[in-house]
Amino acid sequence: MLGTLGKTQASPDLGSMNFTLIVHSAPHSGQGSHTALDFARSLVGGGHGLQRVFFYLDGAENALSTRVFPQEETDVLVGWQTLAREHGCELAVCIAAALRRGVLNHEEADRYERRAANTADHFVIVGLGQLIDAVVESDQCITFVN
Amino acid sequence: MHHVRELTMRELKLLLLLRRAPYDGVYVPEALDAALVAAAFELKVSILLLDDAVFGLLPDQRADLIGRRTVGKLLLALPDYEIERVYVCGDSLSSRGLHAGDTVIPVQVLSAGEQAELFGSHDIVWND
């Protein structure tokens, strides 16, 4: 994890805060997405709010439905989906980052005439404006890079 | 904590850190895209270039020759998006034999201590 950031105006009231996590790391490049998933589980387990995880840069690859995780490695895809299902956390993927990395939902697959859509369930493809919204609306925003 | 939300977007200050070399993947252009969107949402955006990212400040880059967007040109366009505060790490420049006068846009050179103050003066910090 690198690069954090909080809003300096945030009060030190750590009772319950709303977080936005930004993930820049693909599942198998560096440890960023695993660390982010662990951190996200700890947040919701500790009673904090996690409205949205935003996947940007190589992080968009977390949304691939076609990745197969070897048995002895953590399946971060299932981890993210469980977080979304059990805690209502939105998994938002930047559309520009997703297109560049071949992560397509049905609409984009049709638009660009690709043969398959491969965005996993619970992930939504959104614009960068949603990232700004999430950052502005949350108390703390933490970025996970490689 | 709730008074954070009482800040309008216009008052929020975002600092973008760029550390990667300009043509190490497309990370720098993608990070700059996010900064432009933040500026369009009326956040006050500053940029700090560190480490190999300072090479992006060199003039006469021809990234079209390698099928990329030219980072120097993207930096040059920042004022059009009302991003006018661009800072650079002095140690990163000098250890690469570069000088502030060599850069494609005017930059403010900061010492390590000044960078720490810069972090403290922003509400949000992003990195590439």
Polypeptide structure, described:
With 146 residues, chain A is of the alpha/beta class. Chain A has a single domain, classed as Hypothetical Protein Ychn, Chain: A. Chain A has helices at residues 32-45, 76-87, 95-100, 106-111, 129-137, and strands spanning 18-23, 49-55, 90-94, 123-126, 140-144. Chain A has a 5-stranded parallel sheet with strand order 4-3-2-1-5, sandwiched between helices. The radius of gyration of chain A is 15 Å and the shape is globular. Mean pLDDT of chain A is 90; it is low at 1-12. Chain B has 128 residues and is an alpha/beta fold. Chain B has a 5-stranded parallel sheet with strand order 4-3-2-1-5. Chain B is globular and about 40 Å long. The two termini of chain B are 27 Å apart. The mean pLDDT of chain B is 91. Classes of the chains: A alpha/beta (146), B alpha/beta (128).
Gist of the model:
The complex is a heterodimer of chains A (146) and B (128). Chain A has 146 residues and is α/β, with parallel strands linked by helices.
Blueprint of the fold:
The complex is a heterodimer of chains A (146) and B (128).
Chain A: E1 18-23, H1 32-45, E2 49-55, H2 76-87, E3 90-94, H3 95-100, H4 106-111, E4 123-126, H5 129-137, E5 140-144
Parallel strand pairs in A: 1-2, 1-5, 2-3, 3-4
Chain B: H1 3-6, E1 13-18, H2 27-40, E2 44-49, H3 71-76, E3 85-89, H4 90-95, E4 108-110, H5 112-120, E5 124-127
Parallel strand pairs in B: 1-2, 1-5, 2-3, 3-4
**Mind telling me the CATH superfamily name of chain B?**
DsrEFH-like
The third-level CATH topology of chain A is Hypothetical Protein Ychn, Chain: A
Largest sheet of chain B: 5 strands, parallel
- pLDDT average of chain A, as an integer? 90
Main sheet overview of chain A? 5 strands, parallel
CATH class of chain B: Alpha Beta
Percentage beta strand of chain B: 15-25%
- How many helices of chain A? The count is 5
| CATH T-level topology of chain B | Hypothetical Protein Ychn, Chain: A
Helix percent band of chain B: 25-40%
Oligomeric state of the chains? heterodimer
Order of helices and strands of chain A: EHEHEHHEHE
Number of strands of chain A: 5
Q: By helix and strand content of chain B, what is the structural category?
A: alpha/beta
